[in-house]
Design brief:
Rossmann fold; 3 domains; elongated; 12 helices; alpha/beta; six-stranded mixed β-sheet
C-alpha cells in the first residue's frame, strides 16, 4: 500500500499541504476546527509520519550549532539561588545547559517563587520570552506542587519531588544505585550492611533508596539483614545507639556526618567498618560509593523536552513517563579492596 503523504491529505481536505503540516503539528495559529478536520482526514486515510523524514526536516531547519529557542530551568526554592546549595542540583543544571547548547538551545533560569508571581503571570512572562520548553528543577521539599498554565508548555521534571501535576520525569535510578552499593560491599566481604539516612532523603525519591536496600539485602544471610536508621535530623547519640544495637560491619549513607561521627567514636574506616556514600562520589582518594551520573540526568531532561517540542506535545500527559539514568560504583578509601 503506497504511503500517504501530506499532499494526499491536502487534496482530500481541500487545503494547502502547508496547512496540513501545521495542523498535524497542532500549531495554535490555525483555527481549532481546521486542525480537527485535517487530523480527522489524516486518520481516516491511515497517515503515519515518517520518522526519517521528520529527522531530516529538523536538521534542515536547525543545523548543528544554530540557535533554536530558549528553555527554562524552573526553580522553586524560597530564595532565588537556594537550589545552588546542593552540589548534585548544580551538576544537573550543568548537564542540562551543555546539552541545550549542543542542540542549539539556550537554558535560562526562572524562579517560580518570586513574590507576587501567580501561575498566570509566570506563564505570560515565559510566553513573552518565547519559552515553550521547561525543565523543572528538584524541589526544596519531597512533595511539591508547581502551578503554571501547563497547556502552553512542554515540561519535564528532574526527580520525584514534584507530585502535582504528574509530568514526565527524568532522574537517577536510586533503586538500582543503592542495590549496586549493597552488592559491591558484599563482594568485598561485608556481611552486616546497614543504611543510615535522613527520612526526607528517602521520601523525596519515592522511597527508592529503601526499596533497593531491602531487595539488595535478600542476597545476605537472614541473620545479617539489618533494620535501617532513618533520622528526621542528624543526631550523634541516636547514630551511636543504632551502631551498638545493630553492629554493622559496613554502612551505606548520604549523610556527610557519618564519617566524622565514626571517627569520634574511635572506629577506624575501613579497617573496622566500611562506608559507601551515595549520590556525589567522585574518583580519587575520597570515599567509595555510587555516583548518580547527574550530568547525564540533566542532559537527558533536555533531550526529552527537545523531543516534546518537536512532537508538539504540550500540557500534562495522560500517561507520565519515567526516564531513569544508571549510576556507577566508585572505589575509594572507605572500603577494603575487592577480593
Amino acid at each position: 500500500m503506497p504511503r500517504v503523504t501530506l499532499r494526499d491529505i491536502a487534496r482530500r481536505a481541500g487545503c494547502h499541504f502547508s496547512t496540513v503540516s501545521l495542523a498535524l503539528r497542532n500549531r495554535p495559529g490555525l483555527p481549532a476546527a481546521t486542525r480537527a478536520r485535517v487530523r480527522r482526514v489524516a486518520e481516516e486515510m491511515g497517515y503515519r509520519p515518517d520518522p526519517l523524514l521528520a529527522a531530516l526536516a529538523v536538521y534542515r531547519r536547525n543545523p548543528a550549532g544554530k540557535y533554536r529557542a530558549t528553555l527554562a530551568w524552573v526553580t522553586n526554592f524560597p530564595t532565588r539561588a537556594g537550589w545552588r546549595e546542593e552540589e548534585i542540583y548544580r551538576e544537573y543544571f550543568l548537564g542540562a545547559r551543555e546539552q541545550a547548547q549542543a542542540l542549539g538551545f539556550r537554558l535560562q533560569e526562572f524562579w517560580r517563587r518570586e513574590p507576587g508571581l501567580t501561575a498566570e503571570r509566570a506563564s505570560r512572562i515565559l510566553a513573552a520570552r518565547g519559552i515553550e520548553g521547561l525543565v523543572i528543577a528538584p524541589q526544596p521539599t519531597p512533595a511539591e506542587t508547581v502551578t503554571l498554565e501547563w497547556e502552553r508548555f512542554s515540561a519535564v521534571t528532574i526527580g520525584y519531588s514534584v507530585v502535582a501535576p504528574a509530568l514526565h520525569m527524568v532522574g537517577p535510578n536510586q533503586y538500582r544505585c543503592i542495590k549496586l552499593a549493597v552488592e559491591q560491599l558484599a563482594a568485598r566481604g561485608y556481611r552486616r550492611i546497614g543504611l543510615v539516612m535522613r527520612r526526607a532523603s528517602d521520601q523525596r525519591v519515592d522511597h527508592n533508596w529503601l526499596a533497593g536496600y531491602l531487595v539488595g539485602q535478600q542476597g545476605l544471610a537472614r541473620r545479617d539483614r539489618l533494620t535501617p536508621l532513618f533520622l528526621p535530623a542528624w543526631r550523634d547519640a541516636e547514630f551511636a545507639a543504632w551502631l551498638k544495637r545493630r553492629r554493622p560491619d559496613a554502612i551505606i549513607s548520604k549523610c556527610p556526618e557519618v564519617l566524622p561521627a565514626l571517627k569520634k567514636l574511635g572506629l577506624r574506616v575501613p579497617r573496622e567498618l566500611g562506608l559507601a556514600m551515595l549520590t556525589q562520589v567522585k574518583p580519587g582518594r575520597g570515599p567509595a560509593g555510587v555516583n548518580e551520573s547527574p550530568l547525564d540526568v540533566g542532559a537527558a531532561a533536555v533531550d526529552y523536552v527537545a523531543g516534546m517540542l518537536q512532537r508538539n506535545e504540550r500540557g500534562v500527559p495522560a500517561v507520565p513517563r519515567r526516564v531513569l539514568i544508571e549510576g556507577r560504583w566508585i572505589d575509594g578509601a572507605t572500603v577494603r579492596a575487592a577480593g
